[in-house]
Amino acid sequence: MSKEHVLVCLSSSETNRKVISSAAHMASVHGAAFSALFVETAAFRAHADDRMLKQLSRNRSYAAEKGAHVETIYGDNVACQIAEYARQIGASMIILGSSPQRSFFGIRGKNMAERIMSEGPDINLYVVPLRPAHTASYHFKWLLREPMPYRWQDILITVGLLGAATAVGLLFGAADMGDSNIIPLYILVVLAISVLTSSPIYGISASILSVFVFNWFFTEPKYTLRVIDNAYFVTFLVMFVSALLTSSLTVRLKDYARHAAQNSYRTKVLLDTSQLLQQVSDNEAIAGVTAAQIAKLSEKCVVVYLAENDTLKAPKSYPSDQKPDPGCFSEIDREAAHWAWVNRRRAGAGTAVYPSARMLYLSIRIRDHAYGVIGIDESETEMDAFLLSLLLSIMDECAMAMENEKNVQEKEKTEEAARNQKFRADLLRSISHDLRTPLTSIYGNASILETQENLSEEEKKQMYSDIAADSMWLIEVVQNLLAITRLESGEVMLHKQAELMDEVIDEAMKHLDRDGKNHHISVHCSDDILMAKMDARLMVEVIVNLVNNAIKYTQNGSDITIQAWKEKKKIWVSVADNGPGMSDEQKENAFKMFYTGSNQVADARRSLGIGLSLCQSILTVHDGTISVQDNHPCGTVFTFALPAEEVNIHEQ
């Protein structure tokens, strides 16, 4: 079963607050989603005064405080726009206030509810009864408002074009071209005035004036307003109606073009914001991009409070290159921001909650989770409906980006937990499998030595040797495990200083496996000063692991060569052998912990491969690299590199 959705219709009436309250209560009772819609018509834009605009803003804010998603759309067929929007959002209920009955010569027309029902008969519609005296009505009182909307440029355009049309008409009259060519000329001028002026009042005024000017200059008796031929009254009526319709249609087309441009601009801004948000990955950066976009669009100061650990962090202001007014961080503004975050609703300037605050606070929320609060300075001018709708859309993009970031982090945590679980499973499996054999060998040899008294000295010596070898292998495994764990967790404190690589290699040669005497090991260092910044103790361990690895996986009598040289500001060290070599798969996985293959490339006699992984970890914390290649004609070469340390020689 789909969730209910309640849509309330907004207006500039004071009684609209009662409609919003009823709709919010209905949405709460049904557990429904809640939206509020205002349809802005050309008539409203032309006729609405400051009182109506402020009341509309209060009604929008009240709807948002009640939890509604507020939207503004544009069109002249209000009923059709409401029904179409309801279908788009899946509204199951429409709530509106009662509207006055329209009549023409005593014949009652359809009211708003009836017209909506005819457009969307499948939607439940509820009408909240209101007192007729308080319903919104324009009538013609806008014509009497003071001051009249005027600009000197528009007045000059109107008078100039009418004068030009009259001059051309007089030329037509002198050429005896007839009145039929002069009337379209005035209609064309009214059209031009409607296009070039900023208010429809000029087009309407031009329609009226054109009739009087035509009567004064072109009808008998000329230069008077008297009319001898009654047929001219029909001409005047047709001329006036034609000019008025032309003016009205032109104004409407201008409005449509303006709204199309606004929608195009809104789409571009949202697309730019979405692209910018895709380029950042943490909540701080996401909030910064959002606040910067809002500050650029609104040209106002913007403050961001991000939530962390069930509290709001210290605020940050945008644009970052401008110093905000201290009033933006007053105690009442902080309380308003905290209230907006806790209640997931707007607060501050222009709302009923902390109205004395300097800023309007909007929560960055998606569903029931709020990631923070964004405040917009409303101390100088209030945002219009279009800008507020655009900013709310940007806020939704911001909340969605933060939600996606949260999901990514949770996914990474889940994957990390799975990797850790696999790591522990591999570790336990490898240890249980590989440690069992040496422990069994140690236990068996110790038991024989304890119980068998007739053993020869040669047999006892061999058993002691086996116990020592197995014990040493266990010690190396435990040491390597501890070392790599501490390195990857960052617990190892590095003591880096400039060291000569040939001295480090010489020290490593003293700690090789005792089986090294069965191989030919040689060291070749170039004549250059091979100095690098390193922790000598850890670097000795790298070389020992690499050489011991070659000792254990090559036949007795094999050649193992250690070379060191300087090239391209790096110190290079290689450990090469002429043993059986490694397959491509083994080379690819050689530095992975616990890797096993048909011929294990491990650091011990069995399959527990951690020595090479330890070497890689040590070199990583030294900003170095390590790789493995084939040795020709046979064998393997392990090569690592460290950044060379500059050597300054001061001669005296």
Task: From the structure above, extract its key features.
five-stranded parallel β-sheet; 652 residues; five-stranded antiparallel β-sheet; alpha/beta; 18 helices
Number of discrete helical segments: 18
Classify the beta-strand content into a percent band.
15-25%
Quaternary structure annotation: single chain
Query: What overall geometry do the principal axes of the alpha carbons give?
Result: elongated
Low-confidence stretches: 103-107, 133-148, 597-608
Rounded mean pLDDT is 79
Q: Secondary-structure blueprint of this entry?
A:
Blueprint: E1 5-9, H1 16-30, E2 33-40, H2 42-47, H3 50-65, E3 69-74, H4 78-89, E4 93-97, E5 103-104, E6 107-108, H5 112-119, E7 124-128, H6 152-174, H7 182-196, H8 200-218, H9 231-278, H10 283-298, E8 302-306, E9 316-318, H11 331-343, E10 347-348, E11 359-366, E12 369-377, H12 385-434, H13 436-451, H14 457-489, E13 497-500, H15 501-509, E14 520-525, E15 531-534, H16 536-552, E16 559-567, E17 570-577, H17 584-589, H18 611-621, E18 625-630, E19 636-643
Parallel strand pairs: 1-2, 1-4, 2-3, 4-7, 14-16
Antiparallel strand pairs: 5-6, 8-9, 8-12, 10-11, 11-12, 13-15, 16-17, 17-19, 18-19
Quick take:
The chain has 652 residues and is an alpha/beta fold. The protein is 51% helix and 16% strand.
